[in-house]
Amino acid sequence: MEIGLLLIRAVFGLALAAHAAQKLFGAFGGHGIAGTGGFFEAIGFRPGRLFATMAGLGELGGGLALTIGLLTPLASAVVIATMLVAASVHVASNRVRGSRGIARRSARASISSSTSVSS
């Protein structure tokens, strides 16, 4: 059980941190803070750069904390909050299915909450 939780936290946490690196630094083909901020502005989050930075830092900090098992309940809460906002954007834009839809965000929030309860 311990090894399983470690693997789940490591895979999920690193994937979330990599996703945050796309937002913040433009790594792995991401758009960086300027591009992400522009997207956030376009969907109504103003100022876009501020909200993009907050989302990216939440994902990066939460992902890395989950990976190493640091303050797991707090890290899970940060990730859950970030994913709920992301899911609400997808529901509002009617993008519920597919690789960019709410299902992926819901899965992330579920994994995060399960690792919080199990730790």
Description of the structure:
This protein is mostly helical. The protein has one domain (about 1-119). Helix content is about 80%, strand content about 0%. The protein contains five helices and no strands. It has helices spanning about 1-25, 30-40, 50-70, 70-90, 100-119. The longest helix is centred in the first third of the chain and has 24 residues, at about 1-25. The radius of gyration is 14 Å and the shape is globular. The model has no long low-confidence stretch (mean pLDDT about 85).
Q: How big a fraction of the residues is strand?
A: under 5%
Query: Can you summarize the main beta sheet?
Result: none
Global Rg: 14 Å
Helix content: over 70%
Q: What is the total domain count?
A: 1
- The end-to-end distance, rounded to whole angstroms, is 11 Å
The structure class reads mainly alpha
List the helices and strands and how they pair.
Blueprint: H1 2-25, H2 32-42, H3 48-68, H4 72-92, H5 102-118
Helix pairs in contact: 1-2, 1-3, 1-5, 2-3, 3-4, 4-5
Summarize it.
The chain has 119 residues and is an all-alpha fold.
List keywords for this structure.
5 helices, globular, 0% strand
